[in-house]
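Quick one before lunch.
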Amino acid sequence: MLIAQVIVELSLDRKFDYLIPEELSAAVRPGVRVEVPFGKSTRVGCVLSVSEVENFSGRFELKPVLAVKSNSPQLPEKLLQLGSWMADYYCCSYEQAVKALLPGAVRRAKSNRGKRRFALNDLAAADEFIRQNSSKKTAAKRIAVLQTLMQEDDLTADEIELRCGATASVIKGLLELELLVISSVDALKRRKHRKFAVAPDKPRTPTAEQQAALDGICQLLDHPEWDVRTGLLFGVTGSGKTEVYLQSIAHALKLGKSAIVLVPEISLTPQTVRRFRARFGDALAVLHSRLSDAERREEWQKIYNGQAQIAIGARSALFAPLANLGLIVVDEEHENSYKQAEAPRYSARDVAVMRGKIENAAVVLGSATPALETYYNALNGKYKLWKLEHRAEDSPLPEVRVVDLALAREHAKEHPGAGSTLFTPELISAIKSRLHCREQVILFLNRRGYARELACPEELCTWVAECPDCSKSYIYHRSRQMLSCGLCGRIVPAPVHCPVCNAEVLRTRGVGTERIEDIARRIFPHARIERMDSDTMRGADAHEITLEKFRRGELDILIGTQMIAKGLDFPNVTLVGVINADSGLNIPDIRASERTFQLLTQVAGRAGRGDKHGEVIIQTFSPYNDVIRYAVAQDFPAFYEYDAAVRQVLNYPPFGHLIALYARGENESEVSEVINAVFLKAKSFCHASVIAVEPAPAPLARVKGKYRYLATFRGEKISSVRRALRQMVLHEVWKNSVELYLDMDAQTLI
Ligand code: ADP
Ligand code: ZN
Ligand code: ZN
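Model of the adenosine-5'-diphosphate complex:
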């Protein structure tokens, strides 16, 4: 008798046994999707495994599998194995883990092909509509649609309904008001067209360092039986890591194997894709979030059918169903965005290492600023280590100069008009001389909007513009005269007077990129300036257009947030200015130092990539801070020693694991009650060496109207408390109004 273990598409975190009828015995295999009876209805499920049972006493009750969903793809068995591991390790249900393996676009039977897609017609008009109607209940749905589309390029009617419950009539109304336009078909064709217009290129002769790394990776590929499957490619910015990836992949292909390349979404720019396309042409499938459902399905099918042997994409491309996987590359492996923020809260980098283990594939983690965990593993031999210490084209690393903002402030007091703490005299004169030579400048500030907050200047009035649903102040956008919440995305008109005391002029605090752009335009009236952040980048092609302009030399100064910090390679950029290096330093987070170091190094790496010498100016109030000093010296090993020492004392990663337990709900006392009960019970499962930190309101104490509490567990021997917590969170009943979840190997505690 054949029995199938099936997980049903409900988040029950359970596997159910079903009998496989004779006539389906060939078709029911691990990874296929089947219809099964469930209670009084029929459900779709995924077969995890099939087993032969001789003695089936006690299994009389088993119900039979009803049918195999023939048009849906079969997941490879090893991927299912990976999914199971993720469910256990990341403490999510099996259903959630398996769901992550198959892109939504493929899972959904309904096809979006040829469906109309809708996009914002004009941002200013949308703002104006929200401004005039924000208090009207009847406009709520329309405003919700506009807000959703402010965060997306374009969506189908189904997608809009799913996101904000707005029906076709709402969309029709917005089309009539000319607030929306029908976007898709043309954009799709255009993108297709561009895809094929890439000229092929040839491998470059590797430098000695590149060759050594290549040899190491090729050896891993040649010896799938070796135990250590993972290596760190630790190469300074511009050292030619990508060339190493490209040639390693070529070697994998030669062995008849396939490859996956993961890049952070933010650096999955056309520029990156073009480099891979130029080398591998149609063997490449691209998966990223800007694809429409139809495009995504098409790319996925190419991989599934074996037409493409290489998949490149963000996080989820890790689950590309490639046969005979030989190599996984994780570029910029330290990037935060590899950790998924919703369940399953997996780290794509760590899951890549696991997939490599399961499939005997080699895993290459590349970075100029490795995560402490990765470098730790490389130092103690768990991973191989290859270093690229020189830039490939032998252009020297840029010269980094620190400007002390405290001195600049004094100077500005004595010499009004000669610069400020935003644009110090040093920065201004450096920019001027670059403009004079017709070279290009990048200015970086990690905060969008005009100001971090808008508040009342009256001393006795405490009004600050704050999101009513979140414990955070609104970001102020001056040119749009709008306020936006960085947590929930709410957008409202900015008040002109203080709504409490009626003060006539409001004050702003904390500068953002919009303000930097304003000032730059005033100081350098003849320069061609553009800003790139999530406020200005709307529409499918906005990024590409701006970057293309910059590449062609039609812009002199590019101002932006971390969106411009990564992966860009423009030879004519000779100056990078960091407006304020301190903004990320003073956040009470264990990774604040690491992130600041990474960001400064990455931004600095944009300068001097061609044959001209590059310069970086870092403005800071804390020039003697260790993190800033190591970043200025571009000395990662020294930074590692410094930060690792702090973490070791505190038992933080990489010296121990970190589990965050969150509870959220609308009633604060219930939230607190539940998390305290769970915490108390979990403590009895903790190994003596585990440090358990009592529940308390999370740093983001309220988001979207829900109170949030946080407790943490950390230490080396964490697995028994992890298992206990998983069971409590997924299977025990606490209070329906309180949601509990776990974040294993949490990257931030917020
Ligand atoms: P990284 O990814 O390490 O920041 P890139 O791969 O972007 O570095 O390489 C930086 C530049 O050096 C690119 O313009 C690339 O084409 C060039 N390059 C890489 N390897 C070589 C090589 N062996 N010979 C000449 N140029 C190279
Ligand atoms: Zn909010
Ligand atoms: Zn006031």
